[in-house]
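Entry:
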Amino acid sequence: MNSLAIRPLLALLAAAALVSACSPTSDSTSASTKTSASATTSESASATTDACAKEALQTQTPGKLTIATDKPVFPPWFVDDKPENGKGYEGAVAAAVAQKLGFTPDEVTWTRVPFNNVFKPTPKNWDFDINEFSITEKRKQALDFSSPYYDVAQAVVTVKGTKAASVTTLAGLKGLTIGAQVGTTSLDAIKSVIAPTKSPRVYNSNHDVVSALKNGQIDALVTDLPTAFYMSAVQLSKGKIVGQLPSGGGAPEQFGLVLEKNSPLTTCVSKAVDSLRAGGTLTSLVDKWLSQSGAPVLN
């Protein structure tokens, strides 16, 4: 073959090689697809991870957290009736939850809501309420609860020198007139655990229950154990804790943060509480704010 015939053939082969070199291979296409899929997966994982970031939370006021409690509130749950100071067990828990959710103290607003109003089927103007709310199945029908932040026992309180002061058994309580705040598990405990022969006296607040005990209208009252310590030491002259009521062998009574039914915040608030429990913060706050000695269990 002469040189003139070879030149067109070489040119044709060179063009074919160039086209082949510039064409995408199946490997490069696969790599590109994998990179795109990886990016999509990463974005999805990031979105899932950030679901509880502050900017993603659907609070009552964007960028703010509104927390509710009663008026007034007392030690050991709060100090000086100022929940915003972060003192007392529940004041400190609320502050820790807010911090876990990404809110600084100046981004937290407190509002006051009477205990019983929380259960009314009305729209809520707060993100969660903390006020010694025991988690019950009945309440869960109307409200959401966070993971529990405190396992609680009920206790009987009286005044030294009264007939209730010498009681050492459940049977000894049955003939007494006993009082509690309306709508509380303390009242439920009187009915189901003590089962007194006289109907329990019901009052609008723990303050009213204490006044009734001072005035001799009731022989004893039932409240949660930490509040019992405060009542007996501070609110009552010669106050005495008769003892704790037995749990009955079932799951312990627990306090939870209350949220509106189907609140978009429930999962994230529960995660914050779970993190505080797992990290030992809740235990440390119990040690700091709640004293639980000197109250025998009544059997």
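The radius of gyration is 32 Å.
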